[in-house]
Task: structure prediction
Amino acid sequence: MIYLDNSATTAVDEAVVEAMLPWLTKNYGNASSIYSLGRAARVAVEDARAEIAHLLGAHPAEIFFTSGGTESNNTIIKSVLHESDLADAVCVSPTEHHAVLEPAHSAVGGGKGLYVLPVDADGRVTVSEVPAVNRRRTLVSVMHANNETGVVQPVYDVRQAAPDVYLHSDAVQSFGKITVKVDDLGVDFLSVSAHKIHGPKGIGAMYIRKGIDFKAHQHGGAQERNRRAGTEPVHLIVGFQVAARRAAADLEHRATVMMERTRQLREGIAREIPNIRVNTPETGVLPNIINISFLDAERLDGEGILQALDMAGLAVSNGSACVSGSQQPSHVLLAMGRNKAEALAAVRLSVSYTTTQEEIFSAITILADVIREMRG
Ligand code: PLP
Result:
């Protein structure tokens, strides 16, 4: 099986697994316990917090562990609008992940408003429209990089255009692939996750800028300085730390390899498969993602393509969701102005730094064969 779905999740690095194991079997203490087993766990958690903070250019007191990107996004949006009551409105781009769109939709009402920023044909927010939402009690949420197309958003330009708002960015796809520093982005809140960078599933973090009166969305114990209740999963936190450290130390090399692989995919697919539209622009994108629509969609649909590719030994995905048995077109591609057919017959190929050239060439052959056969 050739795995080109690394934006969905990645294999956990061996070194990460090794670093995690002692915290499951030997040093299994609760980080809140006062005896030595607990104190050792506490030291590990705080060490990981300090390192992840450093990688993001943040202070350790600004980092809070969560179960991943979904929880970070939900907590930030819901708390800012409700528990913390810092904003009366939330403003999102239409290409956000559902883990931003759904909480934004569910958090509005009761006097709170929702605004959707326009995007261009590449899916980038129209920065000239941003000043219109620059109000003090507004939360703006613009992702750092899109999970379907890899397009990097001008988050800092959004901050410049809206200096008064609370600004959140979902950096789940960008963290560990390109430089992510909170001050370079100008954000007040940020979401990151471990399993996209060869770390374990079920762990992530939120950055909350110092001085913001942020109240918990999830209640219980006093963990994470009362911002996120729940016993800290020390092994996952250590795994996240090691995955993030390795990604940062090897950032340029990994990016170079991944860019070469996506370039090979782009060229090979354009050469072998007629009648396609590449939805990922060539610049201002993550190194690891390429998204393609097949233009004769009356004979092709995303789900059918994925199934045929799976049978032929290639794992990829698309952004369209299967809701109650019927295929829904990708909301990202629709927001970019693609028609319904293009938004349905699309695939996302996402490589890792471990993806080989041979895998890329085989993947191009499989894709070309499957599409040729499906087109009849
Ligand atoms: N945000 C983006 C942009 C993502 O791509 C994902 C995962 O697909 C998430 C949020 C959710 O992250 P997690 O799987 O850690 O909950």
